[in-house]
């Protein structure tokens, strides 16, 4: 005999499977207007964390740092100051297992007021990323591949 008869459905927080590892690229910026090629081998657009480390001389307030995904026409500008070797982190959700968080921080302190534009994502396949700003820093990109199946 039946004591209960019901249907149940589960809704996952993420609509895909995540790769076990992290994809990461680091670039020493020797000149401005640099383009990077990254490959998202998954089959789903994934959030990217962009980390920009200031050079030893720092970056004065009002200097425009621009980063873009040229493939998806996404672009952001940051105009805040960075002291020598401080790190700016703009995270679309990487640190939160790809759940959108939209953080802009300098050394862990909120810096959203100096941010303007889009948060970065990488579509499946090849993505062309561009950086324009103060040379001699370091740009690091972090992402995880995501899969529908």
Describe what you observe in this structure.
27% of the residues are buried. The protein contains no helices and 15 strands. The chain has 149 residues and is mainly beta. The strands form 4 sheets. Strands 2-14-5-8-9-10 form a 6-stranded antiparallel sheet, with no helix packed on it. The protein has a 5-stranded antiparallel sheet with strand order 3-13-6-7-11, with no helix packed on it. A two-stranded antiparallel sheet has the order 1-15.
The main pleated sheet reads as:
6 strands, antiparallel
Low-confidence stretches: none
Task: Give the distance, in angstroms, between the N- and C-terminal Cα atoms.
Answer: 37 Å
- What's the average pLDDT? 85
- SSE series: EEEEEEEEEEEEEEE
Rg (CA only): 18 Å
What percentage of the residues does DSSP assign to strands (E)?
Answer: 35-45%
How do the helices and strands line up, and which of them pair or pack?
Blueprint: E1 17-18, E2 23-28, E3 34-40, E4 46-47, E5 49-53, E6 65-69, E7 74-78, E8 87-91, E9 103-106, E10 109-110, E11 115-117, E12 121-122, E13 125-132, E14 138-143, E15 146-147
Antiparallel strand pairs: 1-15, 2-14, 3-13, 4-12, 5-8, 5-14, 6-7, 6-13, 7-11, 8-9, 9-10
């Amino acid at each position: 005999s039946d004591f209960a008869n019901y249907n149940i459905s589960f809704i996952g927080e993420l609509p895909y499977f995540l790769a076990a590892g992290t994809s990461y690229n680091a670039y020493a910026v020797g000149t401005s207007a640099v383009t990077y090629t990254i490959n998202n081998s998954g089959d789903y657009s994934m959030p990217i964390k962009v980390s920009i480390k200031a050079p030893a001389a720092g970056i004065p307030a009002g200097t425009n740092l621009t980063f873009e995904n040229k493939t998806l026409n996404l672009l952001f500008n940051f105009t805040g100051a960075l002291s020598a070797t401080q790190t700016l982190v703009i995270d679309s959700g990487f640190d939160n297992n790809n759940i959108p968080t939209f953080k802009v921080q300098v050394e862990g302190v909120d810096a959203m007021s100096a941010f303007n534009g889009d948060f970065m994502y990488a579509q499946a396949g090849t993505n062309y990323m561009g950086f324009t700003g103060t040379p001699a820093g370091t740009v690091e990109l972090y992402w995880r591949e995501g899969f529908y199946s």
